[in-house]
Design goal:
Order of helices and strands of chain B: HHHHHHHHHHHHH
CATH architecture of the largest domain in chain A: 3-Layer(aba) Sandwich
Largest sheet of chain B: none
Radius of gyration of chain A: 25 Å
Largest interface: A-B, 26 and 17 residues
Number of domains of chain A: 2
Shape of chain A: elongated
Number of helices of chain B: 13
Radius of gyration of chain B: 24 Å
Distance between the termini of chain A: 42 Å
Oligomer: heterodimer
Number of domains of chain B: 2
Strand order of the largest sheet of chain A: 6-7-8-3-9-10
Number of helices of chain A: 8
Helix content of chain B: 55-70%
Number of strands of chain B: 0
Helix content of chain A: 10-25%
Shape of chain B: globular
Structural class of chain A: alpha+beta
Number of strands of chain A: 21
CATH superfamily of the largest domain in chain A: P-loop containing nucleotide triphosphate hydrolases
CATH architecture of the largest domain in chain B: Orthogonal Bundle
Order of helices and strands of chain A: EEEHEEEHHHEHEHEEHHEEEEEEEEEEE
Largest sheet of chain A: 6 strands, mixed
Strand content of chain A: 25-35%
CATH class of the largest domain in chain B: Mainly Alpha
Chain lengths: 361, 291
């Protein structure tokens, strides 16, 4: 059982505000991912929950009890660090055993539990090795085992996979998911990798500059981004975000940028004219090759990825405009070919000059 | 000139320079060892005798066992007690060094993790050690006689401990600074108290550094002369004091005996150095490479 609540949690270092009065409740058994670019305050938040940083203001409650003044070891949490933080002078078995020894668990029981946990994360063959002899992925499994064995109510994971290569990351991501399913414990996972967040989380907390930008399920975050920042952060390739303006003309509403002009439905009629950003995910951009329509741009770069092909355009802004299309060979399309772009109105987002999403009525 | 030829020449030059340096560095040690095996007529012979001929153990027997063995000249040195001094030296230096390294490491941990000592304070700490001992030794001997520490083992242990503490703090702090915080925090969240973390995680991780610091301070206290001379009289003599006795006015310069004693003083340190050389190499190069 562990329900974690953060009330107006704040952390400042001198004049720098790392975490700005955040409020968050993490339910028992939930897998929550804190995600955001570096310096957004996600790790500081996690470290405050762990007890390694004292909050400047605000409260941390675990199961309703304020734990601000509790030492890390008295909070009943387990933590996996980015650097694994194994004890290099102890064998893998001694590393895993450490927490049990601190809790004065009798030796025979310790051995049994170490073995059980080692089997669970498949590292029994490593038990007699030193951490220095383990690969990155193995070290991370050991770190996981060391935390698992103490049976904490909540797992805190601070970018645990960021030092591993892509294949291992996928593998261990699945492992984390499996452990969460099996243990039914609360997991708080910090990452800057949106893909990790999307695949693992029950709920994602997007942070930016010390504040929570949006909280929601992965699908929510992806399909209903609250702001320009969230829209940009999630998805690969990321959402096309075109700077331009909303104009009212001929009785309709239209979005116009340097090279694009998109009809908005009447549901956007309430949007006042002025600067705005149009967002559309690459997979929602329709592609035609007849060269007709309001928006025809020459293809600037073509990236065949096998199943899909990415087509890049120059829409007159700093960022490239990207469309994804399925099953298109490189030969079918040449750089410079004019391509008609269609914007599915159901998948269009509009962001105001303050960066917040403007909903259609 | 080809590249490989240039490399060969540079290797030759490098080894030549190092060899010359090695000869210069090792010659005094060789001379000490050679002299300890010489009969008395060869101690100051001219031209110098480089290889003792015939080699003799008389000096060792006389110095260490008190045997009255003489060759052509009579040297009546029978009041010496080098074995007692050896015992004193071992007790005093090892105890003082152990205490200095132990408490030094604890202070250094505090300085490193809690920022107890600013850079300036750390430097001031080291400056304490730069005060020439001769400046403080006179008042110190007054204090010592007043509180009854003069000429006691404890008195010398205490002063050696205090004077080497700054070195210990400085050296161990640089090692502790290198220990990643996350490793400590991992221990903490797994249930270890702060003391437990220090003893189970931090100190074992800087083992090589502690060993290097230990030897460094041991050499200082083992060979300390001035404080021992003033703060001890007859009850507690250390080996360096013993060594100076062979240069008295009545006996003249008894180089052979002195060399035999000096070898006895040097050898223990060399043996320790050899035994822990693996740690030393790691300890002295610790922190040289910034990550």
């Amino acid at each position: 059982m562990a329900r974690i609540e953060l009330h107006n949690l704040r952390k400042t270092y001198g004049s720098v505000v790392a975490v700005k009065d955040i409020n968050l409740t993490i339910e028992d058994g939930e897998f929550v991912v804190l995600v955001g670019p570096s310096g957004c305050g996600k790790t500081t938040t996690l470290r405050m929950i762990a007890g390694f940083e004292d909050p400047t203001a605000g409260e941390i409650r675990i199961d309703g009890r304020v734990v601000n003044d509790l030492e890390p070891r008295d909070r009943g949490l387990g933590m996996v660090f980015q650097s694994h933080a194994l004890f290099p002078h102890k064998t893998v078995a001694q590393n895993i055993e450490f927490g049990l020894r601190m809790k004065k668990v009798p030796a025979p029981e310790r051995q049994a539990r170490v073995r059980a946990v080692a089997e669970m994360v498949r590292i029994t063959h490593l038990l007699d090795k030193m951490p220095g002899q383990c690969s990155g992925g193995e070290s991370q499994r050991v770190a996981l085992a060391r935390t698992l064995v103490t049976n904490p109510s909540t797992f805190l994971l601070d970018e645990p996979l960021s030092s591993l290569d892509a294949k291992l990351r996928r593998e261990l991501r699945a492992e984390c998911d499996r452990l969460h399913e099996e243990l039914k414990r609360t997991f708080i996972y910090v990452t800057h990798d949106q893909e990790e967040a999307m695949t693992l989380a029950d709920r994602i907390v997007v942070m930016r500059q010390g504040e929570i930008e949006q909280i929601g399920s992965p699908l929510d975050i992806y399909s209903r981004p609250a702001s320009y920042f969230v829209a940009d952060f999630f998805g690969s390739p990321s959402m096309n975000l075109v700077a331009g303006e909303v104009v009212h003309e001929d009785g309709g509403v239209r979005f116009r940028s340097k090279k694009l002009s998109v009809d908005l439905t009447a549901r956007y009629a309430h949007v006042p004219p002025g600067k705005a950003t149009l967002g559309i995910r690459p997979e929602h951009v329709g592609v035609g090759f007849d060269g007709t329509g309001a928006n025809v741009l020459p293809a600037r770069l073509i990236e065949p990825l096998g199943k899909d092909t990415l087509i890049y355009f120059d829409d007159g802004t700093e960022r490239a405009f990207v469309a994804v299309t399925e099953g298109l060979g490189k030969a079918a399309l040449k750089v410079g070919t004019p391509v008609s772009l269609a914007f599915d109105p159901r998948h269009i987002y509009l962001f105001g000059s303050d960066g917040r999403r403007i909903d259609p009525k | 000139m080809t590249k490989s030829r240039r490399r060969r020449i540079s290797t030759v030059v490098r080894y030549a320079v190092l060899s010359v340096w090695a000869v210069i560095a090792f010659f005094p040690i060789y001379w000490m060892i050679a002299t300890s095996f010489k009969i008395d007529t060869q101690w100051f012979a001219w031209p110098p005798v480089y290889i003792p001929n015939p080699p003799t153990l008389a000096n060792y027997r006389n110095v260490w066992l008190g045997a009255e063995e003489y060759t052509s000249t009579q040297y009546a040195i029978s009041s010496q007690t080098p074995l007692v001094s050896l015992k004193n030296s071992v007790i005093i230096s090892f105890t003082a060094t152990f205490l200095a390294v132990f408490f030094g490491a604890i202070i250094a941990y505090g300085a490193s993790r809690y920022r107890l000592l600013s850079e300036a304070r750390m430097f001031q700490l080291l400056m304490l050690r730069m005060i020439p001992p001769i400046v403080v030794v006179a008042p110190l001997s007054l204090y010592y006689s007043a509180i009854g520490l003069l000429d006691t083992l404890f008195g010398l242990i205490l002063i050696y401990f205090i004077t080497s503490l700054p070195y210990a703090v400085w050296m161990t702090k640089s090692f502790i600074d290198e220990v990643p915080r996350e490793v400590e925090q991992a221990a903490e969240i797994l249930g270890a108290s702060r003391w437990r973390t220090v003893f189970e995680v931090v100190l074992p991780l800087i083992r090589s550094g502690l060993v290097a610091t230990f030897l460094f301070i041991l050499i200082l206290t083992w060979s300390e002369y001035l404080l021992a001379l003033i703060l001890s009289k007859t009850n507690v003599t250390t080996l360096p004091i013993e060594l100076s006795k062979y240069q008295g006015t009545t006996e003249g310069r008894v180089y052979g005996r002195q060399a035999a004693l000096a070898v006895g003083i040097t050898v223990p340190l060399m043996i320790i150095g050899l035994v822990i050389r693996k740690h030393l190499a790691r300890g002295f190069s610790f922190g040289m490479v910034r990550r």
